Amino acid sequence: MEFLLWLYLIKKKNKLHLIRDRFGVKPLYIYEDDTVIAFASEAKVILGWLNEFSINYNSLSQYLWYGNTIAEETLMNGLNKLKPASIVDNDISNGKISNEEIFWNIPTTNNLLVDETELEENLTTLFDNAVKRQLISDVPIGVLLSGGVDSSGIVAVASKYMNGTLDTYSVEYDYNIGGESELARAAMIAKKYNTNHHELKIEAKNITDIFTALVYQYDEPFADAASIPLYQLAKVCAKDKKVILQGDGGDELFGGYRRYNVLDWLRFWQIASVIGYKIIPNKSWSERMRRMSFVLNQNDNGMRMAYYLTQDVPDKSPYSILSQAAQQKMRNVNPFQPYMDLDKKFAAETVVQKMLFTDTSIILPHTYLEKVDKATMLCSVEARVPYLDNDLAEYILQVPAHVKVKRGEKKYLLIKILKGKVPDEILYGKKRGFDVPYKTWLKTDLYEFAKQSFSAIDTNELLDKNNLITLLDKHKSGIGNYGPLLWKALVLTQWLHLYRNKISS
Asked: Residue 8: is its pLDDT beyond 60?
């Protein structure tokens, strides 16, 4: 009945409204040309329907620098992602967009200045309510428990409101090269809250098949290799859970990245990085300090933020893997424009606040949320993000940066509200992660696959096959570390191969 009423109202008002959530948790694509408007939650639906499409070189430049597009344009001309927090009205009588508006913006005025005790009390209530709301489900629900602050906080609160025993899931990968397992810390939280805890062991089997499936699933080239273990984890969870809670948003809203502390002491690190790369004898550390110096000493703050979020620098441009014709087309594009635009939008904010707001606007929707949504939905699992609850997010976004990033302590406020609920070993412990060894795979398991993929590149295509094969062999022999660039190239090559019969010049 509700569906029929909805169709009736569309017909009566002659309008179709497309709306995307305020943080871009879920994707929504829209295609428009002179004759049609099409929309879908997956771009592959529209791409399968189109007879042909052309490459958007501005988006291609973003992909080569960042490993994914960082704005609403996609790699396909005419196909865009609806902006987070936007409403698009379509006039169905002529198939044209009649209006587009933003219904919510990051609150940039009237920064919330209240006593820390009051802040802590308010945030405790808001976080409790956020987790409680996200637990509402008519299908089995669980929590991804990494052993870090964000997921441990969710478990601590969810355990209070869960009707029955809470199921938690932790994972250990056989390719966590050089990392430390977080299973012990996750088990500590599980024991404290008496959850039904599952420890999953995942091996790097069938990487080539998984890689190919994910290139298709992500609709456009997406080079964050962490999508591989995330998909494997979701696949295991899908055996008995259809909804999982996880901790995305905690870093961006509460100040969890190291760069916020670096920017808080910007002048010190500008000087220290220059001195460091000149005097540190260790080549690896010297190069890291050289790169830090390059990033931090940018005169333009927008460019500083842009370079902070890429592994590349101009003297080692990722455009080197493109054909000469494609490189020519890159002369008129600016992959850093989204960062420069946000620098202007948040002009009145401090350098740290700008970075917090910019991360919330770019890497959160375009990298992390997209990574999680598409990997989990491939397994028919819905991922929910309590930290992006509207009420909680609205409140914490109004808290000034100097309250969140305080005395070099990450997630200062979040740690305060979780004190006593989450063990100190987790709240103050070193943040651990796992490294997806794609650099090693390109020398071993994926070497032949990559070489065959690069060798099959047509001489008229975007990529320079000879240069890629040369870089791959250099990488294999240890002459240089070209892993990040080769990984982006391999993803792009596979994507181009998938749509080779639809891409027009």
From this structure: no
What pairs with residue 99 in β-bridges?
Answer: 89
Q: Which band of pLDDT confidence, cut at 50, 70 and 90, is reported for residue 155?
A: very high
Q: E strands along 174-323, which residues?
A: 196-202, 243-245
Q: By C-alpha distance, which of 410, 395, 472 is closest to 441?
A: 472
Q: 318-373 pLDDT, tens per residue? A: 999 999 999 999 998 999 999 999 999 999 999 999 999 999 999 999 999 999 99
Q: Which own/partner pairs from 401-409 qualify as long-range (CB within 8 Å, at least 24 positions apart)?
A: 401/255, 401/260, 401/264, 401/349, 401/350, 401/352, 401/353, 401/356, 402/264, 402/350, 402/352, 403/116, 403/119, 404/254, 404/255, 404/260, 404/356, 405/255, 405/260, 405/261, 405/264, 405/352, 408/261, 408/264
In the chain, the amino acid numbered 113 is: L
**Residue 77 CB-density burial (10 A; 0-12 exposed, 13-18 middle, 19+ buried):** middle
HEC string for 103-147: CCCCCCCCCCCCCHHHHHHHHHHHHHHHHHHHCCCCCCEEEECCC
What is 151-184 written as a DSSP string? HHHHHHHHHHH-SSPPEEEEEEETT-TT----HH
Q: How many CA atoms lie within 13 A of 341 on its CB side?
A: 9
Task: Report the mean per-residue pLDDT for the chain.
Answer: 89
- pTM beyond 0.85, yes or no: yes
Q: Contact 335/65 with Cβ under 8 angstroms? A: yes
